[in-house]
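Students often ask why we bother encoding 3D structure as a string. The short answer is that it lets us treat folding as translation between two languages. Here is a chain of 253 residues written in the first language.
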Amino acid sequence: LPRRRRAQLQCALGAPRAPPPPPPAPGMVREARYETTYPVTAKEYYDMMLCSSFQRRVHVEGLRMLRWDNVDVFGPNRELSRRIYSEPNLRVPKFLAKFARKSQAYHEESEFDPKALTRRTRVIPCIGSHIMDFNVGERYVDVPKTSSCIVISTVTIRVKTRLFRKLLERWILEQSQTKVAQRDAYVLDALRNKSFSEIVSAVDDDVDKGGFGELGGDDAVTIEERIGFVMGMLALLGGVAFGAKRRMTRVRS
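And here it is in the second language, the structure alphabet:
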């Protein structure tokens, strides 16, 4: 019998069917790694990370964030658990500004280890956190026979949905490269103009010396903010695709 007819007869007679194909595998983890040398020891850089007033200036002035709120819980040996809420400062029309900022706002949950001199951070976008795993790790390593250290930053991202996966992962890694460069420029400039002790002893007027603050961003996500997220993502992905197309055009020419 022809193959198709034989398959039809087997199906009619109750012959076992081939098992369904396996579900698509989740997105692979993509990673970016950065190394920067700073003119302070690893322990001193760790202390700079614990100084919430300085970190607020790094993010607001250096990384150009609109808002950086933190709640710090210190352990007995300078361990730190830090929760952050942050909003970007976007150049968009005023009527879209609030929704666009909320769509790209995020929380962070960080653990600082004074023995290993490390920071482990989970980044939680306010919208879309269920479709991605986004983590940042840092190690602070002394350079032998110097008073300098190397800050090793690792960014990992895994998008769980197939739709726009590669574009979204690429955009996040490109943004991480930009933010690391902005951090390096601001912190290195601060160390050129001030001593380490001046940096960690400076305190914002609205923040206690312990680095405690009020954490925002816990409001329920409104339908307008969801619309803003969709509009922001469409604009983002369109911009990434347009940039990729321009690069391909240059290569061909």
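Translate back mentally: Residues 205-213 have pLDDT under 50 and may be disordered. Keep this in mind for the problem set.
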